[in-house]
Amino acid sequence: MAVSAVLDTNVLVSGLLFPNGLPSRLLDSAIERQFEMVLSDYILEEVDEVLSRIPGVPIATRHTAVKVLMESCRMVIPAEGTWTVRDPEDLPIVGTAVAGQVDYLVTGDKDLLSIRKVDTVLIVTPRSFASIVAVE
């Protein structure tokens, strides 16, 4: 069975904005179906909202980015739960991972990383995940 993962909003935005970075290589590998990326409307809306605040990113580019992400993933509705997270805005991210029954939630968020695991989902850094899926 293929590895599955949720890439959180910051990983996705970094991947879209910095083509030479590790998040970009992870995003490319998701688009190439080297692992199954699972997302939700919540995450896609957050990506669009973050990109809208960056000067010089045209609306057409934002829409194209969201469309490519949507076409490259399996969409789920976030599960609702009472997971212990410092920031309540992280609940739909964790809920996406749980609903998608993914193997990994990939994030740079130190609060989420400190949890390490929710249900069967391991919470890992982009660098750790790159090692798991053999992305250089």
| Main pleated-sheet profile | 6 strands, mixed
Give the count of helical stretches.
7
List segments where confidence is low: pLDDT < 50 over at least 5 consecutive residues.
none
The CATH architecture comes to: 3-Layer(aba) Sandwich
State the share of residues found in helices, binned by percent. Answer: 40-55%
The strand order across the widest sheet is 3-2-1-4-6-5
Order of helices and strands: EHHEHHEHEHEEH
Structure summary, number of beta strands = 6
Rounded mean pLDDT is 92
| Dominant shape | globular
Task: Give the DSSP E fraction (strand runs of 2 or more residues).
Answer: 5-15%
- Count of all domains: 1
Q: In CATH terms, what is the fold-level topology?
A: Rossmann fold
The CATH homologous superfamily: 5'-nuclease
What is the CA-based Rg, rounded? 14 Å
The class by helix and strand makeup works out as alpha/beta
- Write down the CATH class: Alpha Beta
Span between termini: 22 Å
How does the SSE layout of this entry go?
Elements: E1 4-7, H1 9-17, H2 22-31, E2 36-39, H3 41-52, H4 59-71, E3 73-75, H5 91-99, E4 104-106, H6 110-115, E5 117-118, E6 121-124, H7 126-132
Parallel strand pairs: 1-2, 1-4, 2-3, 4-6
Antiparallel strand pairs: 5-6
Helix pairs in contact: 1-2, 1-3, 3-4
Features of the shown structure:
136 residues, alpha/beta, Rossmann fold, six-stranded mixed beta sheet, globular
